[in-house]
Amino acid sequence: MHVFSLMMLQLVAQTKTVKIHGIVKDTTLKSIEISHLVDDKLSKWENTKLNVENGTFNTAIQVPFPVEINISYGNRVYGKNYIYSDAEILIPSLGEPHITRSPIQDEYENEFLPFFQSNDQAYDSLRSFYGRNYQKYGQDIPKSIKDSSILLQKKYCNQRAYLLSEYVKQHPNSYVALWDIYFFVSLPPTHRYFDFEKLFSSFSNQMQQQPFMIVLKEKLKESAKMQVGQLFPKEFFKGYEQLQGKIKKNSQYYLIDFWYSHCGPCAKGFPKLKEIYNQFHGKGFDIVSISVDRQKDKKDYVAAMKKYGLAWNHVWDKDGVKAEMFNIHVFPTYILLDKNDRIINPEIQDNELEAFLKENLGSR
Question: How many domains does the chain have?
Fold first, then answer.
């Protein structure tokens, strides 16, 4: 058994207080923000804003087990920072933050990253390929290029699934591996590549009793409710039943658009959505944008609707509680429904949406 995994398993017993000392080399940086999980149900995340004074900051956070924390400053958010013991965060003048004195971070850097190096390179190539073509073609990427992108994605996911299985066999008590599985559980389009039950069974018996894994299994069950042919969860329209009734009465199809006010890709997608809405709304099509904005960002949420001229229907899932429940973590996410709330496509793209509506509702 690897020493890092053994230490993590021995440490996991209950929620504990972790002290963090930060050293900031960038003299222009006045504050940072740390977001982290605070309960073992994976339902509550806390954002802690910290002032930088004389190049340092200090805080203490409550964590239920070894967790990944996000560190934000400037316009960047840095993930893949793991903690379950008192630790130090170094923020350099250039580059990413670095956590020291954290055994779980040591496992990530010294064992996990080298094991997945080739797969991470494949992912970087995929992102670069798509980014270059998006910059060149915008939303109108040629089908041949999209097909190539899909093949690259399949290659990456198949390789990732295999490597994860091998890593867990070698590290049956690894919370780093479990967090990586959490990422893919949170992306329903990738589920077809992973045998999650087999992955879970490869962990030690003691790890399989940990709340993190139990909740992940429940999340997989909830994700199944967002697949083709299933009824879109009515929980999202609690308090908006009259709105939903009006849409169902007047529409043959409607699109669910998950977004939030500070989402760059969401903003880039609005012009095309508006074009599609204007073309097909009078023929039986509608849109419901569901925002996951936090309560503290209410003003930004309201301002964004006005700024982008979003004339269709809006539902506010405050703090993204329901979206988290059903594994909506990618924004924007477009889900096409029929008038009976049945899911036609849980991951439709705007060009696919336009083609579908032309075929089923007719063009201009």
Answer: 3
Q: Is the pTM of this model over 0.90?
A: no
Residues 194 and 269 in one domain: no
List average pLDDT for each run of 10 residues in the chain, which is 364 residues long.
46 77 93 90 84 96 94 87 96 92 96 97 89 77 84 94 97 96 84 92 93 89 83 92 90 96 90 95 96 92 95 94 83 93 91 92 70
Query: In Å, what is the CA distance from 2 to each residue of 5, 108, 115, 130, 263?
Result: 6, 13, 14, 38, 40
Full strand arrangement of the beta sheet holding 16-24: 56-63, 16-24, 87-91, 98-100
82: which residues sit within 8 A by CB, 6+ positions away?
A: 66, 67, 68, 69, 99, 102, 104, 105, 107, 108, 175, 176, 179
Cα(260)–Cα(266) distance, integer angstroms: 7
Instruction: Copy the structure tokens of residue 131.
Output: 């980014």
Q: Is the same domain home to 210 and 168?
A: yes
List of residues 6+ apart from 44 with CB closer than 8 A: 37, 38
Sign of CA dihedral 242, 243, 246, 252: negative
The domain boundary, picked from 226, 256, 271, lies at 226
Q: End-to-end CA distance of the chain, in Å?
A: 65
Do residues 191 and 271 share a domain? no
Residues 67 and 184 in one domain: no
CATH code of 90's domain: 2.60.40
> By residue range, what is the domain housing residue 25?
3-111
Q: Which two tokens stand for residue 240?
A: 């908006």
